[in-house]
Design a protein that fits this description.
single chain; mainly alpha; Methane Monooxygenase Hydroxylase, Chain G, domain 1; 0% strand; rod-shaped; coiled coil; cytoplasm; cell projection; DZIP_RILPL
Length: 155
Amino acid sequence: MDGAGGVSSSALEKNVAELTVMDVYDIASLVGQEFERVIDQHGCEAIARLMPKVVRVLEILEVLVSRNHIHPEMEELRLEPDRLRPGRVDRIEKEKKHQKELELVEDVWRGEAQDLLTQIAQLQEENKQLMTNLSHKDINFTEEEFQKHEGKFNI
């Protein structure tokens, strides 16, 4: 805070975008000091109509400056989705790729399972025919011979 010439004349020299609420209070103090000087020299009537208007302008300036300090945070939050969007798109693409790979693996698995089921059905049918052929043969195996031959085929 400066001396009698001004509380903080540096607030008046700042770039508008850099003003803080405290700077607005400093400016209000400077304006108040000037009002006191005019009142001392010319009386209260000289600024009676001007003072409420200046006070209102200072109140508006305070609100705008406080919004301006909130604004960068709001702007940052507004830009957050844009910043996150590329990562989200990449993640979605990876998920789609993994889903396609999973579907391919499932298709291969289903194909192999179907092939095995077909092979089982064929082997069962072949076994059935072999059993039928065996039962129709004229060769009569003794139980001992049957077990002997059966042992050769069981692996």
